[in-house]
Amino acid sequence: MSYSRRDLLKKTLAGTIAASVPLSAFKFLSPAQVKASIGDANVRWAFVVDTQKCVGCGLCVKACKNENEVPYDAPVTRTWVERYVVTKDGKTHIDSPMGGRDGFTDGKIRDKEILPEDISKAFFVPKLCNHCETPACVQVCPVGATYQTKDGVVLVDRKWCIGCGYCIMACPYGVRFFHPVHKVAEKCTFCYHRITKGLESACVAACPFGARQLGNLKDHDDPVAKIIMNERVAVLKDEYGTKPQVFYIGLDTNVR
Amino acid sequence: MTEELVVHGLEWTTKQLFVYPNEFIYWSIQIVMYPYMTGLVAGAFVLSSLYHVFGQEDLKDMARFSLVFSLALLPVAMMPLMYHLQQPLRGINVMFTPHFTSAIAAFGIVFSTYALIVISEIWFVYRKYFVEQVAELKGKDDFGSRFMSVLYTILTLGAFDISDAAVAKDKKAVKILAAIGIPVACFLHGYAGFIFGSVKANALWMSPLMPVIFIMSAIVSGIALCMITYIAIMEWKKFKAILARGMGDQSVLHIRGVEMDVVKKASRYLLGFLVAAISLELLDLIFRGYTAMKSWDILREVMYEEDFVKIFILQYGLGNLLPFILLLLPKLDIKRTVVALLLILFGVFMMRWNVVIGGQAFSLSFAGFMHYHIPFWPHNLETYKEGVFGALTVAATPFAIFWVINKVVPSLRYD
Question: Which residue among A95, A162, A239 places its CB closest to the CB of B91?
Answer without folding.
Answer: A162
